[in-house]
Please model this.
Amino acid sequence: MAFTVQDFEDLLRLLDQHPQWREALRRRLLTEEFLESPKVLRDLSDRVQKIELLMGDLIETVKGLAESVAALAEAQRRHYEEFVAHRAEADRRFAELAEAQRRTEEQLQKLSESHQRLSESTVRMQEALQDLGEFREQTKEILDRFGQVIGPMIEERMIQALREWVAEQGGTLLGPVFSVTLDGVGEVDGVAQIRLQDGREVWVLVSAKTKVWPRSIREFVNEVLKSPTAVAMLQAEGIQDPVMPIVFGLTLDRRSMKAAQTSRVGLLISAQGMLVSPVLWSLKDREPIEGESDTSS
Model:
């Protein structure tokens, strides 16, 4: 028997009138798998939701990983840039160090050359000093020989001029004219005791020079007449106050006369006589005796 549309509508009216039949019909019409499909769909939906959640987490994770990778790439980029900058700075400093080392080596080379030149100069200076020392020794020998020749001649002229002056003053030499060596100080070239015209006895102290300069007079005063050591040596030789200091010379510098007058020392020049009259000095006081300014008759 064929099932028509009218039959289907009648069936629907019967189902409406008897709702309890619907479940039985549904069970007859639908398979067990179909009946279970809503549950399966729900399970599938749940799984899909979980998958979506997992996908969301995965996406977030991937996004975080991508951001981390990007951050790492940025950090690597910065590190590379810093490395490049540090490398450039290191290269620059190495270049500066190399240049400084080069300059240092040049300076050391120059210093070595200067030291070499200094050493050579030192050797030449030592040779020159040695030559100078030999020259000084030779000069000293020449001067000693000259002194041995000229010294006695000057002293002879000094003795002759002193004798003539004493005679002109009406005085008398009471003994020979001799020299006195003052150890470590010098020498008094002429020492003699004379009696003046008025009867006083004095010691004459003479410093003999080839040519008399102002400094010759100052040295005689400072190194003999005013020197405690020299005075003590003269007194030890028996020379007592008063004394009459005189500087003798073959010739003189014009300024020597003023120096002799200021120092109150006699100035006796060969062939010219006593140009500045001597005064009496006290060895004890190491100064001229006041009131004794002229020994002429």
Notes: The first strand starts at residue 172 and ends at 173. The chain has six helices and nine strands. The chain has a mean pLDDT of 82.
